[in-house]
Please model this.
Amino acid sequence: MKQLQKLKILDLQDNRIQGLIPNDLCHLQNLGSLALSENELFGQILTCLRNFTFLREIFLDSNKLTSIIPTNLFNLEDILYLNLSSNYLSDYLPPHIGRLKAVIQIDLSVNNFSSNIPSEVGGLQTLADLSLAHNRLQGPVPESFGNLISLQSLDLSYNNLSGVIPKCQKRERTPPQTELLPTLAHGRIAYQELLRATDGFSDSNLLGTRSFGSVYRGTFTDGTILAIKRLDIMTDLACALDYLHHGYSTPLVHCDLKPSNVLLDEDMVAHLCDFGIAKFLGEGESIAHPNTLATLGYIAPESPQERINMREALAALKKIRHQFTQAVKGEKHEDCIALRGESVGSSSEP
Model:
């Protein structure tokens, strides 16, 4: 793993991996997401995770981990999701859990935790989901639970707790005109404001990267903190056009680019739709053939005679998108045109 020091996401969920969590994992200090759920890992949670300053998600549930939660794990103050459920973790819940000021979800259910619930949990004002079910916790539910203003789901079942659950003081909602930021006009935030809030989209504010792009932590001038998604729509469209113009022997020109003709799939990847006035161009021709495709929804951008499997088409689009993203970043300028096997050229979309 020493060669993977730039790795951002490690997802090995739902396998049959056995043994201890390898110490080599300690070299991956740029990880933003660690997912080892539903395996057969045993032993202790690595203490080196305290050094993973970019880590936002920890999923170690459904294993055979034992001992205690390393106290220094709670030094990761920017953790958003922590799931250690369905293991054999024991001892008490340390008060250091109150350091997770940005956490959204904590699941420590189905373990062997005992003693009282630390009152510091009540200071986690961003916490939306908390499950401590199926443990051996005892004593009263802390009065501080009434301060969990973002709490939506709470499961304390199958413990030895007593008393009543304090009523949560939900965040009071103000009228929309006073709740929104000054720069929010019709639900939009100015790009310059986003730049300031994320410190120029600095890596220090990067929460994670997914197929739809990157997610950044943004802190605005009034103290409001938001998760900001930068959708790669323009990159997706550029790659789609490259595919249409150069992906097959018969170029296809869309002829009707506009926002309403862009669809986002479940992964927030942009696709072109409505090929109602699209034109096929023959080799060496600069005018459109009268051959026209007419569609209402999304179709794979190839001629009917050369129709490929939709899954293959999507895979090809995603591959081109990845290559084009690298080209935009200046990492590999030739990659975006690798599928058509020619030098860099220019193309225009009518």
